């Protein structure tokens, strides 16, 4: 069991989301940055969908009431019993140990994974906290959480190679698949969208990020559509012409025209943006977006097996470029 | 009009059946959505039917966009089943503390409170879709004679089960939330319960009939549904 002794910012239990209930109006929720969260889980030997803690900007202080293996995902200073330890590496904590997580140096969301995950009663098949419907609650000081059962041996001391540590940039170009309502915008409107710089405003939360920047012009069809579904990363443009990117806690349906949808591989980049940071949009074909996603998923799988000790990673030079390659470790018969 | 396919990002595809709200289009939407869900292909994540479109969420690792367009085509011929029309009865106490805005709705439309109740509880409402918040149903078929604008200032807390009117729309709050609808009544039913599967009392494609009840009946049902009286 762990105890939260200090919770300076919104901290919630999340997994990869609540699927199959959108047709009942239930939002998906789940982690904001899927890549960082999954990597943190891999470091402690967990599966992709294991419940973990997500915090905004400033991490909590945690007291261990039993031994556990943990790993922190995020660009942040971490102390165990006052001694600095690293993010993106798994450690063994004993009963009575105190884990202090500082303020993120870059990025917006950080993750704390525990071997075995956080035990919880799933609601509609998921442990993701969704505050608007009281599915779970924001964690506060004094809260005690049970961890799932796990064999701890051998799960500590795993480190994510620095090549794979996510970088949270202040500016990013985000790839977008245009549509499905591009006819609600003029040619000039789409050009404005693809050539301008947009700034994340402070009116941004787990539901979506509102952006400030040049106004996107609607066509004579207008800004409103007959309410339809909102996939993750949808960019809605209401009448004021300012885009809103819909994220984890987005409502399942909405009535503003969508100019495009962020490619899934780039959603974590958007989620890690802080108010004041900037985004540019670039059109990408659906084929290219899917290829890129498949490539990323292959890499994630390889990292997972590497951290489990089932694959070996080594550096190779091809065409003068250094890349990391993986090979399976053959088990001795 | 032939249905149109459109990518909605790299992990969802929209099948668009029309560009207006109509019962006929919506029936086709639900027939196709149900057939896809029932077939449950291995690449399927989930299906979300809306007023005029079906959004199919899929796993692009298992199927590409061009492949899914081809895979979905056979489903488009699905036709609504004729005999099945599920009617869900929603008991409602109108007025009083349960519906504090009913007087306003009556005055605004030059009607008596009894007339508002009669007009509101008469039709068979169609559930076009669910969305926005858990269990929120988009109902079609409210009589314009009781249409009333929203509150200028939304209430901070509307109890779950409250039945209201907003413009030409009617429905109920499935979960407690802030809200700007004119409240005319309240149902004792737990219309959304995340511990149940399905979690919502209605699903898209159902029909709803509001049945006026008295206060005594309200508390009787309420206790069965929610446990202790609150």
Automatic annotation (TrEMBL), chain A:
Domain Carboxyltransferase: 23-299
GO MF annotation terms: ATP binding; hydrolase activity
Keyword set, alphabetical order: ATP-binding, Hydrolase, Nucleotide-binding
Source domain of life: Archaea
ATP-binding in keyword set: yes
Pfam family, one: CT_A_B
Keyword check for Transit peptide: no
Name of the protein in question: Allophanate hydrolase, subunit 2
Source organism of this protein record: Thermococcus sibiricus
Phylogenetic placement of the source organism: Archaea, Methanobacteriati, Methanobacteriota, Thermococci, Thermococcales
Automatic annotation (TrEMBL), chain B:
SMART domains from the UniProt entry: AHS1
Xref: InterPro entries: CT_C_D, Cyclophilin-like_dom_sf, PxpB
Gene3D superfamilies: 3.30.1360.40, Cyclophilin-like
Ranges of residues in domain Carboxyltransferase: 3-202
Keyword Ion transport: no
Pfam families recorded: CT_C_D
Domain of life where this protein originates: Archaea
Keywords: ATP-binding, Hydrolase, Nucleotide-binding
The keyword Nucleotide-binding is annotated on this UniProt entry: yes
GO molecular function, one term: hydrolase activity
NCBIfam families recorded: 5-oxoprolinase subunit PxpB
Stated name of the protein: Allophanate hydrolase, subunit 1
Lineage: Archaea, Methanobacteriati, Methanobacteriota, Thermococci, Thermococcales
